[in-house]
């Protein structure tokens, strides 16, 4: 019995996806749960698993094609089965036209990265390699449109047309580490030697972040409420617990914040909500999105029903999802369905900051570092441990008073962390 | 120019060469009184007589052995094997004797011998009678292997084979006898060992020969409607292989698909792909792709047989794959 696989919907606002790579070719056997293809959305490249076992009878769309959600992309059949009523191949499945590719190489390159082979060698066709050498194009700076991000001739031609990668030094882009100290010149000669301007193409993830953030900041009337919490008990409890936990399972400060934010949200359903079509949807589940930095951008992984999960489960889930995000193996469910988000920059010695709301959510927390601070204790001063957290909220849905009350409720959990273990 | 079938073209070449040179004669099973299993030599027996159109016992080793002997003594035998599958019965004679005598005896004798053999599948003749072992024979230095894909080439190449001083295995595809094409009349000779571009294009190089030229051409016509222009290089001769037109085309398109009817492993496609990488590596913009027969003994069942032999759809899919690769 043949089964049709369709372009999955991987988020509230996903309308279409790019079929980056067929992992299983036609005729290949695939078991249920095995990876069938890689799909790129605005947010990430994700693996699509086959929901049946069988043989890949036919690919209905080509690699590189951008197709709407729900479009049939492949047919899985029983071994030897002849499928007569194939779904109509998607008209929209045409790969990006060549002319456009030449005009806007950065915008249509379907694979933002992953074009590096073991040992750091750039994945490029021999022809592309030769052309790059002849025209002094830095291969590493060219986005490949071939399978698995292979750089092919048209990518070099597009790069040459754009002038983006030309004449750049062939060495890889410098790592963002501390620059080596330069000798102080004996006398100011008036001549400055500096590297040429570098033009970096906006990749798909970067442009998605840009689009969403502009949309959020332009359309959502943000307001901000900052509270400073006493985290001395929390830090002590964390140390105590971590002594009992093996390496690799130790709890992070963020795990506590996720749990605390989720528990506090139970009392504030208006903040665990989405605004869509002039209607506030108050979500039954409390799914906390945690921002994870990746090279060139960030993704939000989702810890579902965080109010109901023990700390160790939250910790393990977030750790695994973050690892998948960083290795490019993120699954659709990892990044879909958050109802409230947290951005934590505590590891960067941040006093406080504000975050941009992740639409269609209503609020987001910006978490600063836990640090020693002077604390007024009665009539005396002592050295305590504090952390500032700032909520950004959507004024169309909520008001300052409600946000402030939520921050107070959050304090009940953060400052009395034993409650997180109950 | 007359538009005739490949059967008529082959027949014409044989007839004209027998008229031209009295040392040319035919031998094989049912070639005489019956006129040939595929009716290629119909009328020859009545015209040229039993001396020059000789029916033989059903013994392929004897047919090829006798032909080798005749060639050594100065005649120009054209031996017919009802199918190339029967060449295995005379394998030693073909690859160990005919292919090596000129070399092993210091060039003292030549072997102007032609073996016409019917090859290919698609006619529900079963696994033992439907094979495409072209690559096996093309493996042996000393044996010329020719396999035309058009009526004109069939005529011109058979004439060249008969006039050659070396042993030539001339493979005729069983399902090509009825295809039609323009064939020059009279003394039309196509040189052995020359590949040719049968269809010009710019996007992908399609290397093929024999029956798969027909399949590839149909695929090219369909692809053309989608704006994909395929350049088809017809090998025509497998040994000696003329790789130059393949390389020239590949340097233009940077992408290639090789289509053959035989099995993929150790096949013609393997050889062509290797030559492309050896001689034009820096021109490759995508991995070379091979389309070939599924790696099974060819089934008798019609549906299974057709699904095992490369189809127009297989070629189209392969072209699209290398184009997007």
Task: Describe the secondary-structure layout.
The complex is a heterodimer of chains A (422) and B (325).
Chain A (H helix, E strand, L loop, with lengths): L2 E4 L9 E7 L6 E2 L4 E6 L4 E5 L4 E6 L6 E3 L3 E6 L20 H6 L1 H4 L17 H9 L18 H10 L41 H16 L2 E9 L1 H13 L8 H13 L7 E4 L2 E4 L5 E7 L2 E7 L7 H16 L5 H4 L4 E5 L18 E5 L3 E7 L2 E15 L5 H15 L8
Parallel strand pairs in A: 12-14, 14-15
Antiparallel strand pairs in A: 1-8, 2-4, 2-7, 3-6, 4-5, 6-8, 9-17, 10-11, 12-13, 15-17, 16-17
Helix pairs in contact in A: 3-4, 7-8, 7-10
Chain B lengths: L1 E4 H15 L3 E5 L15 H5 L4 E3 L4 H13 L3 E6 L9 H8 L2 H4 L9 E6 L14 H5 L5 E3 L4 H13 L4 E6 L6 E4 L12 E4 L4 E5 L2 H15 L4 E5 L2 E3 L4 H10 L2 E8 L4 H13 L8 E5 L8 H7 L3 H12 L2
Parallel strand pairs in B: 2-3, 2-4, 4-5, 5-7, 6-7, 10-11, 10-13, 13-14
Antiparallel strand pairs in B: 1-8, 6-12, 9-11
Q: If strands are numbered along the chain, what order do they take across the biggest sheet of chain B?
A: 3-2-4-5-7-6-12
What general outline of chain A do the C-alpha atoms trace? globular
- Point out poorly predicted stretches of chain A: 91-114, 164-175
Stretches of chain B where pLDDT is under 50 for at least 5 consecutive residues are none
CATH topology of the largest domain in chain A: Chloramphenicol Acetyltransferase
Count every beta strand of chain B, where a strand is a DSSP E run of 2 or more residues: 14
Helix content of chain B: 25-40%
Query: Structural class per helix/strand content of chain B?
Result: alpha/beta
**Count of separate structural domains of chain A:** 3
CATH architecture of the largest domain in chain A: 2-Layer Sandwich
Main sheet attributes: strand count, strand direction, barrel closure of chain B: 7 strands, mixed
CATH class of the largest domain in chain B: Alpha Beta
Q: N-to-C terminal Cα separation of chain A, in Å? A: 50 Å
Multimeric status of the protein: heterodimer
